[in-house]
User: What shape does this take?
Amino acid sequence: MNTIPTASLLEAAAACRVLHGEGHADMTLGHVSFRDPLGRGAWMKRSGIGLGEVAGPDDFVLVDFTGRKLAGSGRVHKEWPIHTEVLQARPDVQAVGHTHPFFATAFSALDVELEAVTNEAAYLGSAPGRFDETRGLIDTVPLGASLARALGDRSTALLRNHGVLFVGASMARATLMGVFLERACRSQLLLLQTQLPYRATPTVELFAKKEQILDPQLVDNFWAFYQRKADADRA
Ligand SMILES: [Zn+2]
Assistant: This one.
């Protein structure tokens, strides 16, 4: 039996490069993972390189639910419990990302709810969960479990003064949630700066709008678009 999910690893590597180009780059910090198809744990981006430097399967490690490395030669990010705890708490989730995008991380400091002032926040499905327990690394199983509770059944969460969490039923959907969250936070921060009155998308329209955009065909289209863009940016 082939125990290395090569196609999924290539897709996860592409997700890292997309995130790098869409505002999620922060030195060598930030990581994505996906559920091991054999149930052994999470395949995570390895530590020591930036999201934009992730080239392929060799840049991932398989960690089990206790943080033990089962495969891969790279080092494991200290925040592995984010991935293992979210994957255990959310059977519907296949992919998890944690990054420090500039605008969303700044937004995380605000005592302001994210509103759908432009399209992207509507696509998230609901306002992000908020995690306040620590501003430090999520490097223990209890902290990972606590973050998973803050996420609840949502697609995103803001970790105050730290960064963001985004999840999805596929690598494409999780990555898009991360991209949309950063754009949504950026839009609202821009509006707040003007100090002018504004209106957000009415709650009654939010669900319909999300369904219009996140149908499988459009998700495929957006995912393909962002991969082409990442490739073009690197060329
Ligand atoms: Zn972090």
Summary: The mean pLDDT is 95. Residues 6-230 form a domain with the L-fuculose-1-phosphate Aldolase fold (CATH 3.40.225.10). Strands lie at 31-35, 42-45, 60-63, 69-71, 95-99, 129-131, 156-159, 163-168.
